[in-house]
Write a structure and sequence with these properties.
Length: about 210
């Protein structure tokens, strides 16, 4: 049985994400334990790690770094032991070097780039909120079985601007292209909310649970 550490640091849709992961494990046919934790030892020993995030970049970064030993345990698990990692919404944005929401805030620096405000053309409202299609830019196991233009749910005003285009796995068009999915090695991050995206979101999470490197 695999243990999935769902990081509980006070800045995420933690219970919705946990329910979705349980359903996704059933969809994948995998026996999994979903552990809500910010305990560094539990995170280090987990088989897979999910980092959610809702709110402002600076607040989420401060909350994550305030848990003693948590960032270090995440780094060991993800970089040293190559555990599969998924960041959701601000959890994805925290992978960047820098976030510009509420000033200049350092991120984890796991995928080069920065998080800046979206500037949609055509008078589209901010935040970008609701259903939209996403388009893969390159094949990735987490996108398997979602179809060519899956509909998923967004709530955000800022987006990841990757320094290396090869790390961009999918985009959405909202008055201009917005990075929706980023990835590098065993690390992946999604701007949309899979826990709110019904069947497409569950399929995405099931793919994460099935993901082998």
């Amino acid at each position: 049985m695999e243990d999935i550490a769902l990081i509980d640091y006070g800045s995420g849709n933690i219970h919705s994400a946990a329910r979705a992961l349980h359903k996704a494990a059933d969809m994948a046919g995998k026996a999994c334990t979903i552990t809500l934790t910010h305990d560094p030892d539990r995170v280090y020993k987990a088989d897979r790690i999910v980092l959610p995030g809702v709110g402002h970049f600076a607040d989420c970064a401060a909350a994550l770094k305030s848990r003693d030993g948590l960032v270090e345990a995440l780094g060991m698990a993800v970089h040293t032991h190559a555990k599969p990692f998924l960041g959701i919404c601000v959890g994805m944005q925290l992978l960047a070097d820098t976030g510009w929401e509420d000033g200049n805030t350092p991120g984890l620096g796991w995928i080069a780039g920065e998080v800046g405000p979206i500037t949609p053309k055509g008078g589209l409202p901010i935040p970008h909120m609701g259903w939209n299609t996403i388009t893969p830019t390159r094949p990735h196991p987490l996108m398997a079985g979602l179809g060519p233009d899956p509909h998923v749910y967004f709530v955000h005003s800022y987006a990841f601007q990757a320094a290396n285009p090869a790390c961009i796995l999918a985009e959405t068009d909202y008055g201009g292209l917005i990075t929706t999915l980023i990835g590098k090695d065993n690390i992946c991050g999604t701007q949309f909310h899979p826990e709110k995206s019904q069947r497409a979101g569950l399929r995405f999470l099931a793919n994460f649970i099935d993901w082998t490197l």
